[in-house]
Write a structure and sequence with these properties.
The chain is of the alpha/beta class. It has 3 helices and 8 strands, in the order αββββββββαα. Strands 2-8-7-4-5 form a 5-stranded mixed β-sheet, with no helix packed on it. A 3-stranded mixed β-sheet has the order 1-3-6, with no helix packed on it.
Length: 157
């Protein structure tokens, strides 16, 4: 049973920490950059094809530049969400000229997906299965594969 728990922990670790790409960091024709959600451990990368732009996090939650945190000055600049970001909405903005005020900004709502909650859930499922005399070893292995595929489905959604 311990080996299966380790396998699930490996599956969870693969789900934890997605890459988010913002390829439209420079909006055109009045387009707005949509808000999005992220989980602690995810990395957001901002890309643009040409021009002078930058990316900052504004703790103010608007275009005020006081105490802004630099993410980067070049296309491909990235930020990995930390546990301190959990439960917050981070305001990303371009501080070149009046670009923030013109709409080159976005909000990312960050949440924390507790690894402990995932492991407890898996351990409870195993304990329930282990004490049910109707479940044989083959069914337990099959159940393990089904649970693992559920974690990989999360990646695709």
């Amino acid at each position: 049973m311990r080996y299966l728990l380790l396998f699930y922990c490996f599956c969870i670790a693969n789900v934890y920490g997605a890459d988010i790409e913002v390829s439209n960091w420079v909006p055109t024709d009045g387009q707005e950059i949509p808000s999005m959600d992220a989980i602690v451990g995810d990395t957001i990368t901002f890309k643009w094809s040409e021009g002078i732009y930058d990316v900052f996090i504004h703790p103010s939650g608007n275009c005020e530049e006081d105490e802004a945190i630099l993410v980067g000055y070049t296309s491909g600049s990235s930020y990995t969400f930390k546990e301190d970001d959990s439960g917050k909405e981070l305001f990303f903005a371009c501080d070149v000229g009046q670009r923030c005020e013109a709409g080159q900004n976005m909000i990312v709502a960050v949440s924390s997906k507790s690894m402990d909650m995932e492991i407890d859930s898996i351990e409870n499922a195993f304990n329930s299965a282990a004490y049910d005399p109707k479940i044989t070893g083959n069914i337990l292995v099959f159940s393990s594969l089904v649970l693992a595929s559920g974690f990989f489905t999360i990646i695709l959604i």
